Amino acid sequence: MNVLEVSNLTKKFGGLVAVNGVDLNVKKGSITAVIGPNGAGKTTFFNMITGVYTPDGGSIKSNGKDITGSKPHEVTKNGIARTFQNIRLFGNITVLENVLVGMHTHLKGDLVGTLLGLPYIHKEELKAEQEAYRLLKYVGLETLLNEDATNLSYGAQRRLEIARALATKPTILLLDEPAAGMNPRETVELTDLIKKMREELNLTIVLIEHDMKLVMGISEHIVVLDHGEKIAEGKPSDIRSNTKVIEAYLGKSAVGH
Amino acid sequence: MIEHIISTLPQVLIDGLALGAVYAIIALGYTMVYGILELINFAHGEIFMTGAFIGTALFITLSGLGFLAVMPALLALLLVLIVTSILTGFLGVGIERVAYRPLRKAPKLITLISAIGVSFLLQDLVRFITELKKGNYILTGPSLFTEQISIKASSILSSFADAQIKSSTIILVVTAIVMMIGLDYFVNRTKWGMAMRAVAQDRDTASLMSINVNKVISLTFFLGSALGGATGVLFAVQYGTIDPYIGFILGLKAFTAAVLGGIGNIRGAMVGGLVLGLIEMFAAANLSVITSNVFTAEYKDVFAFIILIIVLIYKPEGIFGKAVAEKV
Amino acid sequence: MKLKELLNNNTKLQAVTLTLYIIVSSAALYFSQKSVTAFLLVLASILLLYLTKFNNKVKWGIGLLVLVVILPFTASQGVAYESYMEVATFVGIYVAMAIGLNIVVGMAGLLDLGFVAFFAIGSYTYAIFATAQANNFLPDIFPLSGSWFWLFLIIGTLFAAIAGILLGIPVLRVKGDYLAIVTLGFGEIIRIVFNNLDKPINFTNGAMGIASIAPPSIFGFEFVQSSQFYFIVLGILLFVIFAVKRLEFSKIGRSWKAVRENEIAAQAMGIHLVRTKLMAFAVGASFSGAMGVVFAAKQTFIDPTSFTLLESITILVMVLLGGMGSVPGVILGAAVMTILNLQVLTEVTNWLGQLNMQGVISIPDALSPAKMQRMIFGLILVLFAIYRPQGLIPAKNPVFDEEKLKADDLNQNEEKVITAQQSVIDA
Q1: Three-state DSSP state, B53
Q2: Distance CA B184, CA B192 (A)
Q3: What is the average pLDDT across C113-142?
Q4: Residue B98 CB neighbour total at 10 angstroms
Q5: Helix spans in C80-140 (H)
Q6: CB A43 to CB B322 under 8 A?
Q7: C66 Cα to chain A: minimum distance (Å)
Q8: Domain-located, residue C375
Q9: How many A×C Cβ pairs under 8 Å?
C-alpha cells in the first residue's frame, strides 16, 4: 500500500524549473532515499510535500488524502513530519519544550481552560511531559532535557529535530540530510536510529542524503533527481550501476571508461 | 466636485512633484540600506531632519556673517548642500558603526530596536542643541528663492486654475533629479557601485570575492545619509520652518515610497516617492471635497499608511520588484 | 562576597533581612512623609522579595501585605499621600501594559510599535459612554453612571482584543521586519482618526478631548482619589499577572515562543501561524484596553495627545529594559521607567531649578531633565540592545523535574513509546 503518492510535481522559480514533473510512490513501512547532486531540487521537493512551497503543478496524496497546496500545519496534522537541512530548532527554549511543541497538535490547551487552570489542562500537560521525556530517551537526549536547544552539539541537535518530529505522531517522516555534519560514529548511530524507528514505530521514512554509505545501507528504494527531473529510481543495486546516475554525479566523461 | 479637482490639478501636480522629490530621495536611503542589510533604518528620517537643521544653521551663520548678501544665493546653496551632505554622510556611517554593526548577527528585532533608539536620540540631540542656541527648538531659516512664478495653466485648458511655483521648488526638483541620476550612475556604472550590488546580493560570496564588505556597507550608509541630509537642506529651503520631529513621520512615508517601488530597487524608490507625493497632495487638496467633508485633509497621512499596509500585504515586492521565495 | 553567598542560601537570614528592610523603609516613610526616597524604598521591597528563595505562596502573601496594607498605610500620614499613590497607580497601569506588550514582543517576537492604540481604544470606549458624548449618535440616555465602569472594564478589554485581531488579520501576513513599520503606521492612524472623528458625527470630540468622564462607583461609593484608584489598578494587575503566568508555560505560551524562535519549524510542528500571532496580539491588546478604561476614569479627561508614538516607545523601553519575555523583568522595567518619568525626572528638574535660583549652578532650560525623555529612552534602547539584550532580569525557561520524569517513565515501562502511533491512520 502506498502511503505517499506524488505525481507530476512541478515547481518553478521565475524562469528556473526547480522540480519538473516528478512522480514518487512510497510504500508503507519502507525507507526511501531521494538523492542527487546539489541543486537537483531535492529540498524543494520536500518543501512542496510539507506545504512550505505551493506546487505549480502535479498532486500529492498522503494516507489517501489529497494534500496538494495544503498549509504546513495541515500537512503535519495529516501525519507527515519533517526535519530540516539547516537545523531549525527553537533555540532559546529547552530541549523538552522543543519536543512538547511537537505534541501541540494533540493537546487541547484552549485559552479559557488555561486561564482558569482547569484540571484537564494540567493533566494533559503532565502526560505530554512524560511522553516528551520518553521520546528524548528514545533518541538518547533525556539527560539534556533542561538545556536550551541552542547549547546542544550538532549531532544532538539533529537528533532533537527527529524527536520533535516524532512528537507530532507522524506516519511518514521526512528527513532532510539527517547525517550532514555528523562524524562517522554519529552517522552509524543515526543509521541504527532510523532502522529502529521504522521497526518500532511503524514509520515510513523518506530521506534526502548525500552520505552514500548510509543511503545504500538502509534504503529499499532510491530516487535520483538531477536538474529537477527524476533520472532514475529503483533498488540500491540498480542505482549503483545506472549510467545516467553516474553521469549526473561525475559528468559524461566518467561513463564508458 | 469634478471642476474642483480639475481646476486644482496643476497646483496639485507641482506641489506633489516637490513633495514626491523629497520622498524619493529619502526613500533611496531606506532602500539602499535595506537592500544591503535587510534592516529598516529608522534613523534615516532623523538624518534627513539633522540635515535640515545643519543646513539652516549654516544659512543662518552665512547670513550673520553677511556672506549671504554678497554671494549668489545659488552658490551659497551649493556650498551648504555639500557641507551638509558630507556631515550627515559621516553621521550615517557613525550610526552604522556604533548601533548596527555590533548587532549584525543578533536577531532582527534587536537591531530594529537599536535603530528606533538612535532615532529618538538624534531627535533629542538636535532639539537640545537648537534649544540651547536659540531658546526654541522650532527653527526658521533665512528666506531664499522665494520668487513666485505664475504658470498660466488656464491657457492650456480653460478649466485649469493658474498655479504658482516657487523658485525653490524648481531648485528642489532639479537637484533631486541630478542626485538621483548621479546615484543611479554610481550604482550601475562604477566599480564601487558594482561592489554594492554584489554585497546586496550575497554578503558572504561578495566577501569571498575579496570585496571589503564593511567598507561597502559604510559607503552605502554614507551615500544614503548624504542624500538624506541634502534633501533636508532642500526641504528647509522649500518649507521654511523645521522642528526636530519632522523626520519620523516623513521618513515613514518615504519608507512607504521605497516599499511601493520595491524595496532594494533604486529606480523603484524614485517612482514610488513621486507617486506617493502626488497622491498625498491630491488627497490634501480634494479629500474633503470628494467625501463632502467627512474626511478632511488631515486624513492624508492615514491614506499614506493604508497604501503602505495594502502594498505590503498584497504586493510586498512593490511595483517593480520581483517576488522572491524564502529559502528553507 | 561571603555575605552574598550566605544570603543566597539561607532563607531564615533572608526573612530577617527582608522584614528589617520593610520595617525600616516603611517607618521612614511613616515618619518622614515628604521623603520620596522612603516611598521608593518601600516599593523596592517587592524587588527584594522577588530575589528571596521563599516558596511562591509566601512571596505572594508578603507581596500583597506590602502593597495592600503597608504601603498605603504608611504613605497616608501626610500631604504627599495622593501624589505617592498617583505614582503607584501609574506604575500599576504601565506594568499591566508592559506585560501585554511583552506577550507580543517578548514571547511571540512581533515588534509592535503602535501598542498605545489599544490603550486609546480602551480609554475612548469608556470616555464616550461615560459622558454625554454618546448622545451624538445614540438615544439621549448618556452619560452612564459610574457604576457601569465595571462592565466597561470588560467591554474595553474586549474591544481592544477585537481591535488587535482586526489589525492582526491583515498585518500579520506581513513579513517580520515590516510588521514594525505597519504597526507604527497603525498607531498613528488611530491617533489621527480619534483626533478627527468629531465630524461628520461627533464621536470623539476631536482634538478638544472628552472631559468630565464619570468616575467609577460601587454601592454609592465613588472612586475619585488616586489612593482609591490604586486598589482598582492593583486588582486588575493581579489578574493580569496571574493570567500571563498561566499562559506563559502553557501550550499557548510555548506556541508563541516557537513562532518567535523559528516560524517555519513552528508551522512544521502543526502550529497555525496566523492564529497563534493573533492570539498574542489579542491578549496583549486586552490588558492595554482594560488599563485604558481605568486611565480614562482616573484622569476624567482624555484627548489624543495621551496616545502618541512616544507612549508606544515608552512601553517598548520598559519591556526591553526589564527583559524581553520575562514577566518579573518587565514588571521591574515598567516600575523603573514610570518612576523615572513621573518622579525622578521632575524631582531632579525641580532640584536643578532651585540650584539655579540660588545661583549655585546654571543649567540652561534646554538641558532640563524633564525634557530629556527621548534622549534617555534612546540611550536605553541602544545600550541595552547592544550590551544587554536580555534585560535586567532575563527570561527563564521552565525547569522540569528530571527525577520525577525518570521515575514516572520507569513505572510505565511496559507501554510502547508512542501509543497513539496508529491513531492518524485509523482516523
Answers
A1: helix
A2: 12
A3: 90
A4: 13
A5: 81-101, 116-129
A6: no
A7: 26
A8: no
A9: 147
